[in-house]
Amino acid sequence: MNLELVGALEELEKERGISKDILLEAIEFAIVSAYKRDYGANGQNVSVSIDERTGNIKVYAYKRVVETVENRAEEISLEDARDIDPSLELDDSVEVEVTPRDFGRIAAQTAKQVVIQRIREAERALVYEEYSNRVGDIVTGVVSRREHRNVMVELGKVEAVLPPGDQMPGDDYSPGTRLKLYIVDVKEHTKGPQVIISRTHPMLLARLFELEVPEIYSGVVEIMGVAREAGVRSKISVMSHSENVDPVGACVGPRGVRVQAVVKELKGEKVDIIAYSDNPEEYVANALSPARVNRVIVDEEGKSARVVVPDNQLSLSIGKEGQNARLAARLTGWRIDIKSEEQMAQIIAEEAFQRAVPEEEDEEPVAAGSDAQWEATEEEAVEAESPAVEDSWEEVGEKVREPETEDIDDVEEIETVEPDTEEPEDEEPPVSQRLEEIDYSGLDRIEAFKLRLLKAQQEQAARKQQEKADKDRKAAKEENKGTVLHDLSSLKAFFEDDEEE
């Protein structure tokens, strides 16, 4: 019977991969539990010894040497102890074999449950240790079933969980479908280790290229970055450590067989392979492939780049709903602002115009007809007339009564000046007119921009000059109006005094 036990242990070791020592330890623990349950030795120190070769099992109990035995399960008399070892004294501890001939039914059932529980714990520990060391690797699994929105995938010894957020929209998750999956995490659970897998993780793309491209597996070509929108499009940047190996060509493969194998596994997801560069300008330009880039302006402090592309490449560089630009930004780690040549020319024109014509501080306009305006006009009129009104009212009256006149005969005949009817000589037209007559279609972009900028400056200067003239004319008119009113009131008062006299 004991030999059958040894054979069963060896079979379990081969089948489930559990060490024989772990199984023996589980059986020893089970026998101890069964002995204590069957013989009521809860407080007794009991040990079990199993011979690995023959399978013989012996149970030993540790008892204390006393003069009078009160508890036979834990104590032994001095005479009985000296029969085992003559050198023993009182209060010594002696190991006594207490191997039962047979366990009861309940004790045997307890031992069975303990053995099964220990074996399960050992299996869980082995699975956890195996898959925790494989986090970040790619595995092949078979879809078993669905639980709510999760997909359960068999990985051999364990059943992994594919959450909804890690499922690709184009995948078929019917039972029996084989998929390549990326191990994201391994968690300990009461029912055993829980393996979390993914089909949308960016590193799944990198691991698939490692499987298909020997240069990546050997380390000659290195993957520097991955940006992915699962099921739609991805970008991967690669760099070669050998001058004789083209990193992009190695990943594409002869006639594209390598990249096509990856695309097939990802259910038609488009993959852009980018050459990595230490130069940020070149790297950003490559990341926007397949669009052509004219120029890249890099801001090192802000970690941003302004990209100038041809007018017909703007939509291609941005991509559908900004997808191409978004993936390029994720891949490079730079914030990318894409402008066409026309948009960039407008930006340069606006910046140059602002530098050429600085903004003036706007004065607060006074509303026409407001109290403040009339008060200001009145004060100006008084200040303007006050130096002239120095004579008394009597002197003013004398001047009015006796105006200085000259004899008509003494007045020389006034010469009539005829208007000059001669045609004026051809004068050079103003700058704004000359700018209007220029044909911009035949000029270079920069030259046309300079002429337009000059025209805008001339128009703005003329507009400001006209506004100033209108303002001066209005102020003079208001001043004259106040003076006339003052003179009329003075004359009216004078004539009233004359009538009284």
List keywords for this structure.
single chain, 501 residues, alpha+beta, 15 strands, elongated
How would you concisely characterize the structure shown here?
The protein has helices at 2-16, 20-39, 78-84, 105-132, 202-212, 214-218, 247-252, 257-265, 280-287, 314-318, 323-332, 341-356, 371-385, 393-401, 431-436, 445-500; strands spanning 45-50, 57-66, 75-77, 93-97, 138-147, 150-154, 159-162, 178-187, 194-198, 221-229, 233-240, 270-275, 295-299, 304-309, 335-340. The chain is α+β, with helices and mostly antiparallel strands.
Describe the structure.
It contains 16 helices and 15 strands. With 501 residues, the protein is α+β, with helices and mostly antiparallel strands. It has a five-stranded antiparallel sheet, covered by helices on one side. Strand 6 and strand 7 form a beta hairpin. Helix 2 packs antiparallel against helix 4, helix 5 crosses helix 8 and helix 12 runs parallel beside helix 16. The longest helix has 56 residues. It is elongated and about 140 Å long.
Describe how the helices and strands are arranged:
Blueprint: H1 2-16, H2 20-39, E1 45-50, E2 57-66, E3 75-77, H3 78-84, E4 93-97, H4 105-132, E5 138-147, E6 150-154, E7 159-162, E8 178-187, E9 194-198, H5 202-212, H6 214-218, E10 221-229, E11 233-240, H7 247-252, H8 257-265, E12 270-275, H9 280-287, E13 295-299, E14 304-309, H10 314-318, H11 323-332, E15 335-340, H12 341-356, H13 371-385, H14 393-401, H15 431-436, H16 445-500
Parallel strand pairs: 2-3, 11-12, 14-15
Antiparallel strand pairs: 1-2, 2-4, 5-6, 5-8, 6-7, 8-9, 10-11, 13-14
Helix pairs in contact: 2-4, 5-8, 9-11, 12-16, 13-16
